[in-house]
Amino acid sequence: MTWLINDFSDSDIVDSICKPINEILLSNEEKESVIFWLSEIDRERVITFYLQRKNIIGDNIKDKIILVLNSPGGDIDSAYLLCQLLRSHCKKFEIVVPLWAKSAATLLCLSADKTLMTPIAELGPLDVQVREPGEVYFKGALDDYQAIMHVRREAFSAFDHAVQLILHGSGGMAIRDILKPAADFVSSLVSPLYSQIDPVKLGKRARELDIGYQYAISVLRKYCKLEEDLCCQVANRIVYDYPSHSFTIDFDELKSLHINVELIEHYYFDMLIAILFKLPDFNLIGSFLEQEEYTTSEEDTAPEEDATPKDCITADNTESAIAQAQVAATYLDDDEIKDANKEEEEDGGNL
């Protein structure tokens, strides 16, 4: 059975794509489950999922649960609880990321036995996002922490340079006599910066970042079976080393983190991405000249037959794609699905 957790008002549109994807992923419907989570991750959704777990997963432990995950993230504590809940109901846990699984959703991917990503899919760092009282927008807890670490690195670098300069310019001055003037020089440079640091706030940021770090180590140790040193290295990189919260962790980067990851490409995942991304009203592939040629009159607004590549999904043909998915969902054989796609093209579809 397949279950869908999403924020889309028109669930029928998503359902029409999910059904054929379900047939692609499942090998044994009785012993496996596919769950589509196309939403943020928060406490309310996780608790609702828990209360419905018997309807969604069943009473027996599944051989495999496949989570199709498309999420901007959310509450990392809730993501950890969801991870534990899903893992406790299956022997093997896989995640498919069509477009993105950022922030807290990345923690789920770290807990999977295997993560399957489309070529455009991305994960993101686990640095916690915080919002101070009175502020409207969230910001990364790593921002303040990295600023302090940068000042610290610059202080050490300035001290080394000061020692070298004094040593070469003094004509043989002893090192012990050089250290104090070098330290005084560096202190005069960084003291104005350090005087602006709130130690309480800095400690708070360090604790907030440690949440993602400890959760990452926990799931990597328990589910990925990585050695302790490697768990710490991966967790440190994914929490502290990336320059921004929006940084893209793609297939190659995730593989370098010793995570079991595979690429997946299929026509129906492209269709799902088109719906999730809410394609704007223009062709993603094509020249600007071709678009300008068809803006002179209403009769000329329709592009020539070959103006849009047949494999390009656009806003104009998304409805055709959905209709095609509904038809193809009844076909279980790949060759029959391809025949259905071909018939739709001959009827005027652009896919």
Describe the protein's architecture and organization.
With about 350 residues, the chain is an alpha/beta fold. About 50% of the residues lie in helices and about 10% in strands. The protein folds into three domains: about 1-125 and about 250-265, Alpha-Beta Complex (2-enoyl-CoA Hydratase, Chain A, domain 1); about 140-205; about 280-345, no CATH class. Strands 1-2-3-4-6-10 form a six-stranded parallel sheet, with helices on both faces. Strands 5-7 form a two-stranded parallel sheet. Strand 8 (about 130) and strand 9 (about 140) form a beta hairpin. The protein is elongated, with a radius of gyration of 27 Å.
Itemize the secondary structure elements and their pairings.
Elements lengths: L1 E5 L4 H15 L6 E7 L4 H9 L1 H4 L5 E8 L6 H12 L2 E8 L2 E2 L2 H7 L3 E4 L4 E2 L5 E2 L8 E2 H30 L4 H20 L4 H25 L4 H14 L9 H6 L4 E3 L3 H11 L10 H6 L24 H11 L5 H13 L5
Parallel strand pairs: 1-2, 2-3, 3-4, 4-6, 5-7, 6-10
Antiparallel strand pairs: 8-9
